[in-house]
Design a protein that fits this description.
- By secondary structure, the protein is mainly α.
- It has a domain at 37-129.
- The protein contains three helices and no strands.
- It has helices at residues 37-45, 52-69, 72-133.
- Helix 1 packs parallel to helix 3 (72-133) and helix 2 packs antiparallel against helix 3.
- The longest helix is centred in the last third of the chain and has 62 residues, at 72-133.
- It is rod-shaped, with a radius of gyration of 35 Å.
- Belongs to the CD225/Dispanin family.
- Pfam families: CD225.
- One of its GO terms (biological process) is bone morphogenesis.
- It is found in: Membrane.
Length: 134
């Protein structure tokens, strides 16, 4: 009795012939999901808005690990989460500075208008008090 492993039992050579009429065409295998690792690293290093880039990086690494292990559904799930967090991190990192800049600009414009009105008010008051002294 042969107990060596791995055991490879090959059928006889005669049964290995292929029947040309029974050709099976396999449908294209589902494309492996993208892991978005580069985008996640970019968001983690350059635009880490509320640590969303780091969360996206964690899901990207999980997606890559699942893809390597062959679990395509889990890889697709983690890839989808990584993409969502990357979108949120990128949008937050681009929108937040624009909103802050808009608030600063409107604040400066409002303060300059108030300052101009104050100057006009006090110059008017000063000119009226000069007239009363005469």
């Amino acid at each position: 009795m042969d107990t060596s492993y791995p055991r490879e039992d090959f059928p006889p050579a005669a049964s290995r012939k292929r029947d040309p009429s029974a050709t099976v065409i396999a449908g294209g295998a589902a494309a492996a999901p993208r892991d978005h690792l580069v985008w996640s690293v970019f968001n983690t290093i350059y635009m880490n808005f509320c640590c969303l880039g780091f969360v996206a990086l964690a899901f990207s690494v999980k997606a890559r690990d699942q893809k390597v292990s062959g679990d395509v559904e889990a890889a697709r799930h983690f890839s989808s989460k990584a993409r969502r967090y990357n979108v949120l991190a990128t949008a937050g990192s681009l929108v937040l500075p624009l909103v802050l800049a808009a608030l600063v600009i409107t604040g400066v414009l409002h303060l300059s208008k108030l300052a101009q009105e104050s100057i006009d008010f006090f110059s008017y008051q000063l000119s009226m008090s000069d007239d009363d002294d005469d």
